[in-house]
From TrEMBL:
One of its GO terms (biological process) is DNA recombination. The keyword Cell cycle does not apply. It holds the Pfam family Ku. The gene is ku. SMART domains: Ku78 (SM00559). With LigD forms a non-homologous end joining (NHEJ) DNA repair enzyme, which repairs dsDNA breaks with reduced fidelity. Binds linear dsDNA with 5'- and 3'- overhangs but not closed circular dsDNA nor ssDNA. Recruits and stimulates the ligase activity of LigD. It comes from Lentibacillus halodurans. One of its GO terms (molecular function) is double-stranded DNA binding. It comes from the Bacteria. Keywords: DNA damage, DNA recombination, DNA repair, DNA-binding. Residues 52-181 form the Ku domain. This is Non-homologous end joining protein Ku. Belongs to the prokaryotic Ku family.
Length: 283
């Protein structure tokens, strides 16, 4: 697995050098946007509306919009210094809690932890301690320029970091519109619903659940591919500066030679005309 992060997990005076790996992957089928007329992929460019031109990455700076069209600009060095201050810190487990005390709405993304060099023994120690106590650890860590709140727990004999939202990132349920305050449910309806739930109750088996839309979409793509319903985008050839320069020079030379002959004739004609006029004036 690709290592996303290296660091140290600590609880008390115990330090565990670890590597972090993504535990999940996004298997969404990514579709490209093509120009209908020529079947060429459409590009999305970064354009400054004021200057009315495309801007390069080195022309872009980060800023925080604290009011409408009012910004505080932050340079790369300032952001890097802040990031480094947090990244250099060991990830310290602050508390140990019960997993069922955390509502699933807080959970965000999962990462596997593997012991780094020299960390196998302390890794096993934390794993055994969590397993025997039934607790999970609460810690803070820097992941991709963001300080994350996280839990450290066991999943199939492996330590897992589960990033969770901060409380202020979870929206207040009171803001959800049209939620009834009370249940106006008849007893017969409730009993029937409970019977239905009882009949559909089962042990959780993740293997039985499939992404039917993704499967159907991939089948459709394969059918079209095997039926030769494919299109090939013709990329615009990149300009060859040397070739273009030579072509331009040769074309310029050819034009200059063509233009030179008539000009010479016109000059001769003009000279003859002016000589005759001079003779007439002299007579």
């Amino acid at each position: 697995m690709h290592t996303m992060w290296k660091g140290t997990i600590s609880f008390g005076l115990v330090n565990i050098p670890v590597k972090m790996h993504a535990a999940t992957e996004n298997k969404d089928v990514k579709l490209r946007n093509l120009h209908k007329e020529c079947q060429t992929p459409v590009k999305y460019q970064k354009v400054c509306p004021k200057c009315d031109r495309e801007v390069d990455n080195d022309e872009i700076v980060k800023a925080y919009e604290y009011a409408k069209n009012k910004f505080v600009v932050l340079d790369d060095e300032e952001l890097e210094n802040l990031k480094k201050e947090q990244a250099d810190k060991a990830v310290e487990i602050m508390d140990f809690v019960n997993l069922d005390e955390i509502d699933p709405i807080y959970f965000e993304k999962s990462y596997y932890l593997s012991p780094n060099e020299g960390g196998a023994k302390s890794y096993g120690l934390l794993r055994s301690a969590l397993e025997d106590t039934g607790k999970i650890g609460i810690a803070k860590m820097m992941i991709r320029s963001k300080e994350q709140l996280a839990v450290i727990r066991i999943y199939q004999n492996t330590l897992v970091v589960e990033t969770i939202h901060y409380p202020d990132e979870v929206r207040d349920v009171k803001d959800v519109p049209n939620v009834p305050e009370e249940n106006n449910t008849e007893e017969k309806e409730l009993e029937t619903a409970k019977m239905l739930i009882d009949q559909l109750s089962a042990e959780f088996d993740p293997e039985k659940y499939k992404d039917e839309y993704r499967t159907a979409l991939m089948e459709l793509i394969e059918q079209k591919k095997n039926g030769d319903e494919v299109t090939t985008a013709e990329e615009k050839p990149k300009p060859d500066n040397v070739t273009n320069l030579m072509d331009a020079l040769q074309e310029s030379l050819d034009r200059a030679q063509k233009d030179k002959k008539p000009k010479t004739k016109r000059k001769t004609a003009n000279t003859n005309t002016s000589s005759k006029e001079k003779k007439k004036v002299a007579k």
